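Entry type: protein chain
Record version: 2
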Amino acid sequence: MIDITTELFHAKIFGARADMTIFKKVRNYFYLHGNLYVYVRKYKDNLCLYTFNKYDQMIKLICHLATYDDKCSFVTNPHIPNVIYANFKLNRGETQSYISVDNGKNFEPIKFKDRHSSGVGNNVRIEFDLECRDDYIQSNFPEKFIIIFKGSFHTKGSTTRHIFISVDDGLNWNILGSRIEKLILMNRGGIMLGIEYNIHRFWYSYDYGFHWMSKSTDMNNLVDIIAMEFPNNPIIAAFNYDKLKNIYTLYLFSFSHLMSRIFIMKDRTCQINDFEHIYVSRYSGTCYQGQQVYNLKKKRSSMCVDNRKFVPPHTKPCPCSIEDFDW
């Protein structure tokens, strides 16, 4: 038995009209965690995001969304309920990425920390590429606590392209060097591999991107790179094609063996003491709607192979706050 609900809105009373053009892009609609998000265009150049409350009333979340031909104006976190990433149009015609962790009641600009500073100034804008793709979960939310976006870093009149990554559910963000064009995760993010295609250099990290090492290769035409995770042995396969000799070459990089040599230890599987709790942060702390949600993440200092097949979130009860609940 399927229940079908029909909602009718009088355009003159509602004061807006549905943006019918996005019916051509079904992926622009999101229905996750029991929430339906839809676009409404209140004016010609003012695109808004709406949702429905438990009484089936349409609630405006935010307006002045940036519009794109090939990207979304917003995406929601598939692992954490009520977390929204959106690109807003600013008064100067610029675009900036914002995040909401309370289902759109409040939005804050994306902030990040890098190795050399505690933060960034007000003259810096981050603009994520919010892709409308079927595999956006795999590309942007590969693990319960890891978020990855490609995007633009705007500062002092210049713009550079980067990969932005968070390994704590979006609480803190790091920016990778602009030369790194592709990022591959293994060992549930414990191993990161970045690639500089123009000089065929590999950058790799064993602590979620806090420290990096590099390795140059004799490749001259990298065709593809594939991650293959066997029990206790993460491997990267890279394919090179020599156009002059018409020869394909396969390169295999065993990170398990590298870990053993660098840290003078044998390959081993992670044990319970190798993990730490990563709590999902909200505006008022880690308690939200009567629950604390956390994930088990391998510690940065633990040199082991995380071979868990399934990583469910964990919850603990906590005191409720009226501000945590919807309208």
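Comment: The chain is about 5% helix and 40% strand.
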